[in-house]
Design a protein that fits this description.
This protein has 409 residues and is α+β, with helices and mostly antiparallel strands. The protein has ten helices and 21 strands. The mean pLDDT is 97.
């Protein structure tokens, strides 16, 4: 087989994207959704594999900046649109694209790479660890009440057109980014993503709706949602489908949840893709009737161990030497000494004896503070070489809030 891996030319985008769509089932996307991804494509950061005139492999890397523990916003490659044609599987095409992509990310000076996986088992061999999880639930509003904090009644709610309210919602979102690791600072055009609402993908639900939370004339929160009307012999049994919610303080957040849980002709609020420590779980009177479940979300890889570990802060003082294994990116292999605290950190190569031994995959999983090094050690994936080092590092790597990816890419 003779194939060519090359940077995507703008004129090739339709064929390239057609290969991607075919790999994911062959159902064409709605025109507005397709236009958005075409506008977001950074052609010099996207690659394809070609067999003669046919595109047989696709991969890209968006230019992102992501919040990490301590609030710093770190350059990050958002790996996306990875596919291999069914006719060309098991020929090394995926590995060749991952090899080229990680070499490029390193050359671009971006210490982190992240992705969401259609099949989670694929990316561990390339050094990606599961760094964030998300929650799905359905609040039975006929049997579950809310207990709201003081000040909730002072928040004014206003229905708004989602498009006209987009700037106000984006302003709230931007203020939230440094508060939670894993959130992405949105670049131009990404503000369109929450508004994509193809009629053919609504499944009988309404067009997207928006409510703004205001205090003293300032927007302090928002919720984007849809209503799916349903009826049973007993009467109305509709659902509120939450698409996005952001709030700057507990009272605004509680006001939005109370609104969603009290919309006429509905009996449930369906939630997906929310943080695992989301506030609604502590507002509801019976969390068991909400049936919360979790699944993996953001997969993260350290492309440059030293730069990545130096970019975040640590919630407790730490001085530990890691023995890092990284067969796919050998420039990360070896011993790294991390010293840091809540004010900053430095991570440099060292010849000192190692305190902990692990692969870059485990560092990726623990990096945002949502997965503990002690839990990874319990699974045999981190080995303690100096007594006490595991607890020291695990506490330091933690985050006071759960990391969260607010939207896919």
């Amino acid at each position: 087989m003779t194939t060519e891996l090359r940077v995507l030319d703008a004129a090739e985008w339709d064929d390239w994207y057609g290969t991607l769509e075919l790999a994911f089932g062959g159902v064409p996307e709605a025109p507005e959704e397709r236009r958005l991804w075409q506008d977001l494509t950074e052609h010099d950061r996207f690659i394809g594999v070609w067999d003669g005139e046919s595109c047989v492999g696709t991969a890209g890397a968006f230019t992102f900046r992501m919040s990490v523990p301590g609030g710093a916003i770190v350059p990050t490659a958002g790996v996306t649109m990875v596919s291999v044609a069914a006719t060309h599987r098991r020929r090394g095409i995926l590995s060749s694209m991952m090899r080229r992509q990680l070499d490029d990310v390193r050359a671009w000076g971006e210490p982190l790479a992240v992705l969401t996986a259609s099949e989670p088992e694929i990316y561990g061999r390339f050094g990606y660890g599961i760094a964030t999880y998300q929650t799905r639930a359905s609040i039975d509003t006929t049997r579950v009440g809310l207990t709201v904090p003081e000040g909730t009644d002072e928040v004014v709610l206003r229905q708004a057109d989602p498009v006209k309210a987009a700037a106000a919602c984006e302003a709230v979102y931007a203020r939230l980014v440094p508060r939670r690791p894993g959130m992405l600072a949105r670049r131009p055009h990404w503000e369109r993503l929450p508004l994509i609402d193809p009629e053919g993908e609504r499944g009988g639900a309404s067009p997207r709706q928006c409510v703004l939370a205001e205090r003293d004339g300032e927007v302090v929160g928002y919720a984007l949602y849809a209503i799916k009307p349903e009826w049973s012999p007993a009467g109305a049994d509709g659902s509120v489908l939450l698409k996005d919610l952001g709030a700057l303080d507990p009272a605004a957040e509680a006001a939005l949840w109370r609104f969603l849980c009290s919309i006429d002709l509905t009996s449930s609020v369906r939630i997906h893709g929310r943080p695992v420590d989301d506030a609604w779980q502590h507002l509801v009177t019976d969390v068991r009737r909400c049936a919360p479940t979790q699944r993996d979300s953001l997969h993260l890889r350290l492309v440059d161990v030293g730069a990545a570990l130096s970019a975040r802060t640590y919630q407790a003082p730490v001085d530990v030497v890691f023995e890092v294994a990284d067969a796919f990116c050998p420039w990360n292999e070896g011993r790294w000494r991390l010293t840091g605290d809540a004010k900053g950190a430095v991570c440099v190569r060292t010849d000192e004896a190692a305190d902990l031994s692990l692969s870059v995959r485990e560092l990726g999983a623990a990096y945002l503070g949502g997965v503990s090094l002690t839990s990874l050690a319990a699974a045999g994936r981190v080995r303690e070489l100096r007594g006490g080092a595991l607890v020291e590092a695990s506490v330091a790597f933690g985050s006071p809030v759960a990391p969260w990816l607010p939207h896919g890419f």
